[in-house]
Amino acid sequence: MNENPDSKATKIKNFDPDGVGNTNANIFGLPFSVEEADVVIIPVPWDVTVSNIEGTSGGPENIFRQSAQIDLYDEFVPEPWKAGIAMEKISVRMIRRNNSLRPMAEKYIHWLEQDESPEDHPEFNEIKEEINRACAELCEQIKSRSLGYLEQKKLAVILGGDHSTPLGLIMALAEKNKDFGLLQIDAHADLRPAYEGFTHSHASIMYNAMQLEQISRFVQVGLRDFCSQELQIIEQNPDRMKAFFARDIHRRLFEGDNWKNICEDIIKELPDKVYISFDIDGLEPAGCPGTGTPVPGGLFYNQVLYLFEQIALSGKTIIGFDLVETGTGQLDGVIACRILYKTIAIMLKSNGKV
């Protein structure tokens, strides 16, 4: 019986993981299609509501472009690529929509920063309403696509774009899981209700996620730039929220504690199923030089990956994750594509798929 040259098994057999990365193939130079992959990456080139430095809408393309340079052997999970990893094509239509709305949002944000109001500009509320409508439509679109993959027993990953982009996947997971925790790696708390009037702002993602009762626990790690309103939300919800502030983490390390102990404390706060939301600005800025809102005093690359590995080793299941706010510089892509690959490997191990 002849082998099917297009089958997944044949592709695995014939693929050389030590060869030159094929830039005409799928992400990481892999030969898999979305249909046959166990892990599907959904790129969301969207940064309409960013309030500081724009450009993270180009993150998915930059990561894809750099990904063929990765060596596919992983020390924690030697051959994660064999599970099948593929990324959807980046939507040209979504890029165009983002690029048409971003100047409008920028103008609106400028008016806010100048303390201007609807009385000063007739289109003030029209712009806000159009952007809110477009962001809500995007969220529903991502939710629908995510549900399709989840129903096929695939693992889904969101690659942003700004931090508003994964809400659709989180909503889809809430429909498929009665109880799970959300681990957020971030410089910011993202708990602002409709920040700047935008209901799906990048600064409102966790406030919006809190409306999903299936998320029983929010564990935030690396916070160091937040407002009093956000701190109040954290403090008023002790049964649901736990923050590991960057200042407290570094103080423990300075005073002789170690990262292993801190990771154990973080993991104790999480239920058995975990969704990871990784805003790359949770890292020290050297690890995310082109991100939209860099903040000094963050975590380091190896610290975060060690934490994720310990989650998998603890027996908890990582049910999905996002990687967002990546800039378009070469170093941004080099770092982010390795975080993406290694986190996928850890997620696969936690699900018993490798």
Measured by DSSP, the beta-strand proportion falls in: 5-15%
Provide the residue-averaged pLDDT.
95
Class by alpha and beta content: alpha/beta
What integer value in Å does the Rg equal?
Answer: 20 Å
Q: How does the major sheet shape up?
A: 8 strands, parallel
Strand order of the largest sheet: 2-1-3-8-7-4-5-6
Continuous helix count: 11
Give a written overview of the molecule.
The chain is α/β, with parallel strands linked by helices. The protein has a single domain, classed as Arginase, Chain A (3-Layer(aba) Sandwich), CATH 3.40.800.10. Helices cover about 40% and strands about 15% of the residues. The chain contains eleven helices and eight strands. It has an eight-stranded parallel beta sheet, with helices on both faces. Helix 7 links the parallel strand 5 and strand 6. It is globular, with a radius of gyration of 20 Å. The two termini are about 30 Å apart. The model has no long low-confidence stretch (mean pLDDT about 95).
Structure, briefly:
By secondary structure, the chain is of the alpha/beta class. Helices cover 40% and strands 14% of the residues. It has a single domain, classed as Arginase, Chain A.
Give the SSE map.
Blueprint: H1 8-14, E1 39-44, H2 59-67, E2 85-87, H3 92-113, H4 124-151, E3 155-160, H5 167-176, E4 180-185, H6 205-209, E5 215-223, H7 228-235, E6 241-245, H8 246-254, H9 259-268, E7 273-279, H10 301-313, E8 317-324, H11 330-350
Parallel strand pairs: 1-2, 1-3, 3-8, 4-5, 4-7, 5-6, 7-8
Helix pairs in contact: 2-11, 3-4, 4-5, 9-10, 10-11
